[in-house]
Amino acid sequence: MKHLTTIVLFLFCLGNVNSVLSQTKEKILQEHEQKIEAYINDHTHTPLPETALQKFIDIFNEGEHGLAFEKLSKEEQTMHIESYKKGYLRLQYFKENPETKELYKSRPAPLCENGDFEYGNFNLYAGTSAFSSNGGYTTGECDAIPVNGAGSYGWTPNNMNNPGVDNFMIVTQGNDPIVAASGGQLSRVNSGSYAARINSPRPLTVPTFGNNACFPNYGMNRLIKTITLQEDGDQEILFTYALVSEFPMHTNRNPFFIARALDQNQMEFDRICIVSNPNNNPFFNQFIPTNPDCNNSPPVLWKDWTCAKLEISGNVGDVVTLEFIMTDCALGGHYGYAYVDDICIETCDPGTEGAIELDDLDPCQELPFDVCGTYALPQLNGQQGTINSITLDILQNGVIVNTLTNPTSITGNTFCFNVTANDFPSQSGGYDFRANATFNIANGSQIVNDTNTTPGTNNDFIFDNPECCKIEANATNILCDDNGTPNDPSDDTWSFDLTVSNDTNTGFWVANSVLTQSIPYGNTVNVTMGNISNYGTTVDIVISDKEDETCTTTITVNVPENCSDDECTLEAVTSVGSCNDNGTPNDPSDDYYNITLDVFNTNGEPWMVLNSNMMVIYFGNGDENNVNLGNNYLVADQLEWFWVKLNNDPNCFVDVTVLAPETCDFTCNISANITTSDCNDNGTPNDPSDDFYYITVDVLGTNGISWDLVGYPNYQQIAYSGTGNVTNIQLGPISASDPSWVLYITPTGLVDSSCKRFETTVFAPKCSERDPKKDAIVITPNPNKGNMNIQVDTSGDSTVELNIYRMNGTLVKTIKKEKVNTKVLAFDISLNLPKGFYLFNFITKNGMITKRVIIE
Fold first, then answer.
1. Residue 455, preceding peptide bond in cis (omega within 30° of 0)
2. Which of 340-344, 600-604, 681-685 has the largest mean confidence?
3. CA 135 to chain centre
4. CATH fold for the domain made of 671-763
5. 519 vs 341, 466, 499, 553, 557, CA distance in Å?
6. Does the fold of domain 776-855 match that of domain 472-558?
């Protein structure tokens, strides 16, 4: 961030020109003030309009002086009305002659000239006052001044160098008299010989005829300076200020000070606001005045010289308006005034009051995103404060529309809030952010804030920002082509449809890595990618606007699986041994168990076993039984995962998940592997009533106990009894009339209560499909980062239900899709899940298929 500084290099001719211009403007203003005085004199005897008079009386009666207008003497009423009428007529003059306001405006000063007031005057400044008692604000404190413009107050220009104007004054070195009277010491000038005072120090006196002129009269004054930027980009304007004000303890109506910067359209870049209220600012000094002329004695607060900054943005030649605003209280009876110095100073001490600052934010980034910043703890009298809370306001047109109260992270002196689309009340227009920090210090609290990640209004984040590059790309119909050789995967190629759009769907886009021609936005083009040699990986494609190469987006496409028939028939089954307490029966943390593995349908190919750390723990060759995977598996780990894969085919693998026994008292973990034969029509193809089939059952995980197997398909009893693990049990014939039935394996004899009955559903084959096509599930890529493409190939139409489980059996998500009139059901999903292993359980009309997915 650059600092806007005053370059200490004054050419003689430039200084001479400014002097001449200042003298000329002063002469013109003096002549014009005479015209205004003549206008007022000409209309002095004209009665006030009834509405204006009644408005004055109403506000007078609401004031804090404790008087009712109706109870004043005629002489006192006339005095108050005539005093009010002068301000009213001055306002009317400018309403009737609006072009004359231009005479009072400050001339844009290059290099922030006279920012330190060392000219000893208000040259290159302007000042306006909210006219008289009905010109001040009524409520709202900081919100009384909107972010766009200066509000609908009766602002009237002032002749800044008129010694009779006490609401703007150039002050010299010396101590503030009100603070000094209390024994305090506040210099009226921070550096150099001069500074500016905004608003007048008029205490509320006993309101009798003759001294009522000291009444604060709702003062509300703006010191205005316009500057011309000498550099492009974001910049900072530093300045110093000091405050003196009463604390009347009003609700939302206390005196306040605002410093702000506005663009050429009078929209705020940035602001600071200090309210005369010590409850949330322990850095105020305060005392109770002892003024015998006052009829009330509220605390007087004063704040020593403090460095502050305003953030602005623009280009060389842009005009920026700086405004410094000070008010009395909203009820008109308590004063407040501010000293300002060193505008555009190069550096200044930020002080120890604590601070919070938002980081710059790219307004073109996509939701959700993080809004982050830093904070500095306050220090007071050797004590360092602590953070109490940080909140983030979302504003539109300067009004809070939502507040986030829970930062996603607070680390060191940094913080972040995650912002989503739901945090905005509407998905249109621009918004700003404001960070608020509450610190605990000195048995109280200090509240600080910072508005805007980008200087300006409604521009921290903009929905459908026309200045942002927004290209959206989507890859669909990712297909494999077997090139007429369904049994040879080596020549399989793949392609996909690529659709690219922008906000208007006008113009052209290019993707030079895969396409040679430019394509109109909104159109879909088929992209051919060549041979499939890297299944399971992804390809990143950069798409850019043809006219603006810096406007890009990147799409990640999953390489599909080969489509030629090279079916993987590999199968693996594990058995869990008994739990061993490791000689420490009272310490379950070191209980372990043994795992054995049976691998078959290898077609004589070599294979390997990898553990959950992707380390090879065993090499095998052909079908093998009772492979000992070791006995070092801790019960406390709850489960183990293995990957059995063929050495020469990376696409042929089996995921094996093993659940640990619950405790060393666990006696069995019965399970079964069931294979269903083809349907036999019994020589009567037209009579399904006598169709039958057989099942082959492997009973595992028994730990040597005896068991009974039973099921009742179509009122037929299927039964078998055994002891220990038994494989290749042939059962049947079984009637195919019952499409599904439940098979139970129940432990018998004296066994532990934790040894549970096993049950599973058997689905009968259909003779109408002699060689039914097996359902095929393809998930690409796998492993992935949560984004994947799923293809389900099942015969005929079917409802496909996908249940996603963690490895501990917890259901994470359920997705249902309809496969209708299509060869393959394909869809993309995006999951925001922690890294780990997940089971994808697919249920179709033909049964259930489970796949393991690794999310990295």
1. no
2. 340-344
3. 40
4. Immunoglobulin-like (2.60.40)
5. 60, 22, 10, 15, 19
6. yes
Q: Which of 373, 412, 413 shows the shortest CA–CA distance to 392?
A: 373
* Per-residue pLDDT at 29 exceeds 50: yes
CATH class of the domain at 776-855 = mainly beta
Q: Give, as one character, the DSSP assignment of residue 685.
A: T
In the predicted model, is pLDDT for residue 391 greater than 50?
A: yes
CB 249 within 8 A of CB 298: yes
Tens-place pLDDT, residues 427-477: 889 999 999 999 998 877 888 889 888 888 898 999 888 778 888 899 999
* Tokens found for residue 143: 């919100």
- In single-letter form, the type of residue at position 132 comes to S
Fold of 571-659: Immunoglobulin-like (2.60.40)
pLDDT band per the 50, 70, 90 thresholds, residue 649: confident
What are the beta bridge partners of residue 789?
A: 780, 828
- Average pLDDT of the chain to the nearest whole number: 83
> At residue 5, does pLDDT exceed 60?
no
Q: What are the structure tokens assigned to 790, written together?
A: 């799923």
Q: What is the DSSP string of 476-536?
A: EEEEEE-TT-TT-GGG-EEEEEEEEE-SS--SEEE-TTT-SS-EETT-EEEEEEEE---TT
Which comes out higher in pLDDT, residue 253 or 485? 253
Q: Per-domain residue ranges for the chain? A: 29-341, 355-462, 472-558, 571-659, 671-763, 776-855
How is residue 546 annotated by DSSP?
S
What are the backbone dihedrals phi and psi of residue 62, each rounded to the nearest 5 degrees, phi first?
Answer: -85, -10
More confident residue, 310 or 25: 310
Q: Give the architecture (CATH level 2) of 472-558.
A: Sandwich (2.60)
CA torsion, ordered 209, 214, 220, 226, to nearest 10 deg? 130
Single out the residue of 48, 124, 137, 128 nearest to residue 94, CA to CA. Answer: 128
For strand 571-576 and strand 552-558, is the pairing parallel, antiparallel, or unpaired? unpaired
* CATH superfamily of this structure's domain 29-341: Galactose-binding domain-like (2.60.120.260)
Q: What is the pLDDT of residues 659-676, one digit of tens each?
A: 888 767 545 678 899 999
Question: Rounded to an integer, what distance in angstroms lies between the CA atom of residue 486 and that of residue 482?
Answer: 6
Is domain 355-462 annotated with CATH 2.60.40.10? yes
Q: Binning pLDDT at 50, 70 and 90, where does residue 292 land? A: very low
